[in-house]
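Q: I'm writing up a methods section and want to include an example of the input and output format. Could you take the sequence below and give the corresponding predicted structure tokens, formatted cleanly so I can copy it straight into the document?
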Amino acid sequence: MDHDAGGAPVEHDAARRPCAATGPHPGRRRGRVGGGRAAPGVLAAVAAGGMIGASARYGLARAFPARPGGVPWATLGANLAGSFLLGLVLVVVLERFPPTRNLRPFLATGVLGAFTTMSTFQVEVVLLIRDGHATTGLAYGLGSLAAGLGLAYAGVVAGRLVPLRHREGPR
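A: Here is the clean output for your methods example:
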């Protein structure tokens, strides 16, 4: 196997294989311009959504600060709400409404990507365990994963209850 300039493995036939991400034109992803760079409008949508999502999570963390040894309720709430909303939003945006170029990156990657947090979740689990609260840390970690998967599925199911709209090409 070959490696790129940064040392990452390169799979030579990956660009030739059709898949859901590349659609009908292998090697070319939607929302991207030549050379694999994201289109400026998509980047702006992600950035704008990210400002909203990160600000909302910051406000939640300020309103519900974590206590030492306790469950970090703000992170738990953000991640569980984000799991449900991501399932809902993706189904509604991709299956129920006409396609748009920037709505999914704005909502899913921007708003919900910044609102939810894997890194803070991981640090909180490790700190709980390290500080002698292993039961709380493990319950928080495993409970978050199980509840997040369940809520993402519930979001998908709820999204499919939304009436189907006429679908056209990208706007």
